[in-house]
């Protein structure tokens, strides 16, 4: 009969895990975190700026579209604005979990954003601007996922979920162009 170390459970050193968990200063970030925290926070702050600009663009489009026949487009713009705000909230929360500071500074928002703001008056131009912005967001998230790899599974899962929603938004905008 061989002796089993009571600290090893299912191949894990629970005593070491418990001891490392006593460092409370890092909150949700444990000793086993493999990501480059500063780089991930910077990437997430860029995405946060992008989402905030998208909220503002969709809100502007929602409030400026008029005409009875544009009701469905107006509703789509509002729905997307609300969903983009949700993405911004997720990103800000993750930045805080990583012990970073979410950057909501309006003075530099558009220069930090991957997507552009749009103030066109034409409905078709609004839809086109939103489709372009969604495509920018999709590619930005794809590149972020590539950079993060498997080093931060929580951030990775969040970004995958947001990217899937951006793809849905792009499909919606493409349909509105038809």
Automatic annotation (TrEMBL):
Keywords: Iron, Iron storage, Metal-binding
Residues annotated as binding Fe cation: 51, 87, 134, 166, 169
One GO term of the biological process aspect: intracellular iron ion homeostasis
Family matches, as PROSITE patterns: FERRITIN_LIKE
Gene Ontology MF terms in the entry: ferric iron binding; ferroxidase activity; heme binding
Pfam families per UniProt: Ferritin
Family per record: Belongs to the bacterioferritin family.
Name used for this protein in its record: Bacterioferritin
Taxonomic source organism: Undibacterium pigrum
Lineage: Bacteria, Pseudomonadati, Pseudomonadota, Betaproteobacteria, Burkholderiales
